[in-house]
Automatic annotation (TrEMBL):
Transmembrane segments: 26-53, 65-84, 104-127, 229-248
Keyword Transmembrane: yes
CDD domains according to UniProt: EcfT
Classification via InterPro entries: ABC/ECF_trnsptr_transmembrane (IPR003339), ECF_transporter_component (IPR051611)
Membrane topology: Multi-pass membrane protein
Gene Ontology cellular-component terms listed: plasma membrane
Pfam families hit by this protein: CbiQ
Localisation per UniProt entry: Membrane
Protein name as it appears in the record: Energy-coupling factor transporter transmembrane protein EcfT
Principal subcellular localization: membrane
Organism encoding this protein: Bifidobacterium pseudolongum
Keywords noted in UniProt: Cell membrane, Membrane, Transmembrane, Transmembrane helix
Keyword Membrane: yes
Length: 250
């Protein structure tokens, strides 16, 4: 693990501007949260898998995501089936006080598809955006450079924590020490130390230095290409079409 969600590849999603991918993710999250049509949710799930496949993201990374997402969705479905036994009238199966209705199954399907769509939409950007692309994209949204760097580091705090935890656990095992809570404490201490070193390194390179009217900038600013504009146009058209279908009550 390299301490990032980013998966190195050379596909079209990796080359896409970070701001377009962020807009795409936000649109998918909003549409899936607003519209509960199971066919639309299932279609979005298939489309996002096809996008990752055509971007040449290794299947093992998508499999690792589903290794966590699958049990979570199953747990949510089981909890809903157990707690919504009185919902609906079309009883499909009954055991004592507990019954399963067609309405309950449909609601479970919609909720599980929503969770899967939203999580996959987030990882669509996380898998295909490097730390440098995060910084360039956020500064392209007129965020200060220091704030963009902090946000880019915060995005990858979870994989960084697991990478450091694995290192600390191996170091403790090589010394004959056990894991457990001590390894967790070492991990948080190591993460804080890395953040402090990153801040010190930035300060020694002139970050936050008073330079009058001059502002610090990235070496290669974000630039929208024709392909980025075309993808953004497609996203806007799809969002408008779905909004129209929702307004018409489809």
């Amino acid at each position: 693990m390299n301490g990032q969600f980013h998966v190195p590849a050379t596909g079209w999603l990796h080359a896409l501007d970070m701001r377009v991918k962020l807009c795409m993710t936000l649109v998918v999250v909003v549409l899936c949260s607003v519209w509960g049509n199971w066919m639309f949710l299932a279609a979005m799930l298939v489309v996002m898998h096809v996008m990752l496949l055509t971007d040449h993201v290794p299947a093992r990374h998508v499999g690792r995501l589903w290794a966590v997402l699958g049990p979570l969705c199953a747990l949510v479905a089981v909890i809903m089936l157990l707690s919504m036994n009185a919902y609906g009238t079309g009883v499909l199966w009954q055991l004592g006080w507990w019954r399963v209705t067609s309405q309950t199954l449909m609601m479970c399907l919609v909720v599980v598809l929503r969770i899967a769509d939203i999580v996959l939409a987030l990882f669509l950007t996380l898998f295909t955006t490097s730390h440098a692309d995060w910084v360039r994209g956020l500064t392209g949204l007129h965020l200060p450079l220091t704030a963009a760097r902090r946000m880019a580091r915060a995005v990858n705090v979870v994989p960084q924590w697991f990478a450091v935890f694995r290192e600390r656990r191996l170091m403790r095992a090589s010394r004959g020490a056990g894991g457990g809570f001590a390894a967790f404490g070492d991990t948080w201490a190591a993460l804080r130390l890395r953040e402090r070193r990153a801040s010190v390194a930035a300060l020694t390179r002139g970050a936050q230095m008073h330079t009058g009217s001059a502002k610090p900038t990235v070496m290669r600013p974000a630039h929208m290409r024709l392909a980025d504009w075309l993808v953004l146009l497609i996203v806007v058209l799809v969002a408008a079409g779905v909004a129209a279908m929702v307004a018409l009550g489809w």
